[in-house]
Design a protein that fits this description.
The chain is mainly α. Helices cover 79% and strands 0% of the residues. The protein is globular.
Length: 393
Amino acid sequence: MSRYTRNFSILQGCYWIAACFLYAFAERFLLARGFTVQEVGIVLAVSNGAALLLQPLLAALADRPNGLSLRAELSTGAGLAAALSLLLCFPGQTAALVAVLFGSLAALTVAIQPLANAVGLAYLDRGERINYSLARGIASALFGGYCYAAGFLAEWNSDALLWCFAASSLGLMVSALAFAPKKEPSAQPKEDGGAWTLFLKHRFLWLLLPATVLIFTVHNFINAYMLSIVSAIGGGTHEMSVAIALAAILEIPTMAGFSLLQKRFRLKTLLFFSAAAFLFKHLLLLLPLYGGAGVWAVYASQSVQLLGYAIFIPASSFFLNERMDAGDKVKGQMLLTESQTLGCILGQLLGGFSIASIAVGPTLLIGGALTAVGTALMGLALWEKKKPDCQEG
């Protein structure tokens, strides 16, 4: 393992250990603070909406020749996130203050995710020896292990998770600062025009990004409300943590071996296959509620993560990195992450209200339909006829 792969693995690991608290235990934490399921959905949706507005600003700074470096932005954001999590530890806070602090914490954590990815891609573009997918696989292993252990910790005291979040965020800040190459990758020349110009140059974005929104709406609904899903079939926090940890751990072999998949299959083929796997995963999740299956069906559904999410994340990043022009690479990654973030907003907001209104089962049926539409749009986006001047990805 090269020095850059090792350093990038540490950076990714610290980020995803911190993110576990938000993606896996946000519902558990906020419910323990007296919030309802609908209120949890509102807090998470608003925080992701704030992240959606913050991400383009961070991208603009990174793309400017004289702007902040990716490492500087990432370390600053991680330090602020650690401070916010420690503020949440103080007792006697009102529900409104908890919502503001937690929402700000979630927004900041989501907003810096593309920066954590772009750091590795920037060095990869410079020819440094970085196994990007292996680093993401190691991060998934840490995410899964932390999810499993944090399940026991949350049953004892959910506030203790805040200290774990703060420690991992500080680790991210330090690792970002320590991830210093021989020469800092310089910002790429800025292209003329903004997002509209980018859409005109790359027509496939008109379909690929909405497809990503739909797929991740359902994906993030499942992650955010896994506790409600397993509770509907008689499970609890332990079953939730096992399900989430299983999905994360099984990502490892796929992400670690993604370079081999990339040599054998085209990126567009891998992307469409991953979208179809998201759909298959969702259909399996319907078995406990409509087929009489037990919690094992939830675990089986989560196991399909190694074919869906584990392929989609590296494949989509590499696909856009190849297709975007030099000055648009960070913007391309930001657009992809913003699509996923919008999916978070819709999944968390609509999911909370839908569970309260029509229960878990009907909500999952609607989610299956949305995933099917997203998969179809992904296929149309990837095999759309390109303009002659567009580079094949």
